[in-house]
Amino acid sequence: MKKKAIVNNTPVCQVRMQAISDTMSLLSGKWKFHILGTLIEGCKLGFMDLLREIDGIGSKMLSKELQDLEMNHLISRTVMDTKPITVQYAITEYGATLTPLINEMAKWGIEYRQSVHGAK
Amino acid sequence: MKKKAIVNNTPVCQVRMQAISDTMSLLSGKWKFHILGTLIEGCKLGFMDLLREIDGIGSKMLSKELQDLEMNHLISRTVMDTKPITVQYAITEYGATLTPLINEMAKWGIEYRQSVHGAK
DNA sequence: GTAGGTGGTTTCCTACAGGAAAGTACTTCC
DNA sequence: GGAAGTACTTTCCTGTAGGAAACCACCTAC
Question: Does residue B6 have a pLDDT over 60?
Fold first, then answer.
């Protein structure tokens, strides 16, 4: 009947784990980081711009992912009153708070590449 | 025939995007961050410990994810010569370099929760 | 011998992610 | 009138992620 002490059910841990799950579920899927990264670099872009920028994505995926991101207030969608109607997607102030996370991720990925190619 | 300038095909961008894809593919799936987070907190843990710590995971998933992480040198697997044979999983030095990334992610998730509950 | 603990693997199943291609609607250019 | 561009949506299909449950092997305590 002796049960090992559970190390991980302290409140601080539960909150951290929950927070990571939240973040991951908002950014789940193959394309969200690409879209956000592109919008952070490019500022304002149209649907077709994104379709061309992001290598390999299809219109269905792009449409769905943009809706997801807009729903979570990470990007904004603005219909422009131009001759052939255009839509501009841009990162929101809130979405921009992801920049350090994206930078960390890019930095780690670059270092990983180097260590695999160099040390292995 | 006029084509809009592509903003995203500068070498630095391509490398960043590739790096993000690399990182995401190593950490893909529902459980990798949970496992890494738990091992960073708990130091050395056995299979059954992890099964109990990580709420909801099944033995198949845990086994598979541990193999993935070990293959990428993010965790170590040590068979202990104890009475009933036990295995210890621990984070490697290399896996520990993910700590800032995991911290960023947890931090962002916590802030997201607060902003949704508070401001909305 | 049998119940219970360790550390898994294997089988089977389902749901969702994601891709290709076509369709919709509206506009402008020629 | 028709091609071409913008911005999507819809349909159809496939592959894989991931869960439940059973099974294997080995050891110890009773």
Answer: no
